[in-house]
C-alpha cells in the first residue's frame, strides 16, 4: 500500500477498543496496519462498556475531543463506525457536524440488526438514518447482502463493500479419523447466536461415534448455557466459559479444529474470520453476511437458520470425516488469506480515502 502525502490525516470515531464486540476487534486489527500510521489516524471513542455514568462520561469526553479535532486539528476525512440503536444516535450527530464542517465522511455500517432497526424505528428516525447514509461521501457495507439492504434504505447513498479484516496465523493441524476433535463456539451466548440450539444439537449426536469436546465461550447468558448443558447430559463433553480476552481467544482457536456459529442474525462476524484465519473448519448459518464470508458455502459449511437436524448432521460429519473437515478448513484458510487479510483490507481503505479527498 502506498503511503499518503505527509501531513494527511484521518479521524476514526467508534466504540472504545476495550469494549466487547466486532467493531472494537476490527479497530484493533486495523491499528496494526500501514493504514493507521500512513494516514496518521487519531481515534475517538464515543462509547465504553460500564455503568450509565461511564457511558455518558465517555460520550461527553468524545465530543470535547471531536470539537478539538474538527476545529483545531482538522482531519482530511472522518471515518465513522456506526451500528444500530444507541450507536446510531451517538454517531448521527457526528455525521451531521462533520457535514457542517465540510469534512469528507466515510460511514462504516456494522451490526447485525441495522435493517431491522431501520424498519422498526419511528418515521423521524428513519429519515435521520437515510439522511446519514446519503450525506456520507462513501458508505461501507460488510458484504453484498448488506450493500443491497443499505441501498434499499438510502437509494442515493454511495455504498461499497469492504470486508472485515483479520490477521493470518499458522493453520491448526487437522487430526486423522478417530482422533479427538475440539469444537469451538465464540460469541455472545444467547438465542440470537443460536447457542442453545447448539447445545441441543450436541446432545442429539450423542457420545458415539466420536471423541469430541465442545467449548462455548462468551458473555451473555452464561449461567443458562451451563444449566442446559447439565440438563442435556452433555456435561462431560462441553465446557462453558465466560468472555475471553484476545490472548485467551487466540489460544483456544489454536487448540480447536472446528468452529460453529448457528446464528439467527449477523453482520459479518469477526469470530468466523478469526476461525478461518486459524485454519478451522467453519460451520455457520446462512444469515447476514456469513454467506459472503464463506463464499456461498465453499469455504465453510453453510446451514439454514434454525435447522437443528442439519446442525447435528454437519457437526457429526465434521467430527468424523477427517478428510472433508481438512478440505473445508483449507478452503476457508485460503479465502481468508486472499480476501480478508488485514494488510489487504487496509490497502482497500487507503484507495477509498484517496478517492474521497480527491
From TrEMBL:
<keyword id="KW-0328">Glycosyltransferase</keyword>
<dbReference type="Pfam" id="PF13692">
    <property type="entry name" value="Glyco_trans_1_4"/>
</dbReference>
<feature type="domain" description="Glycosyltransferase subfamily 4-like N-terminal">
    <location>
        <begin position="57"/>
        <end position="164"/>
    </location>
</feature>
<dbReference type="Pfam" id="PF13579">
    <property type="entry name" value="Glyco_trans_4_4"/>
</dbReference>
<dbReference type="InterPro" id="IPR028098">
    <property type="entry name" value="Glyco_trans_4-like_N"/>
</dbReference>
<protein>
    <submittedName>
        <fullName>Glycosyltransferase family 4 protein</fullName>
    </submittedName>
</protein>
<keyword id="KW-0808">Transferase</keyword>
<dbReference type="InterPro" id="IPR050194">
    <property type="entry name" value="Glycosyltransferase_grp1"/>
</dbReference>
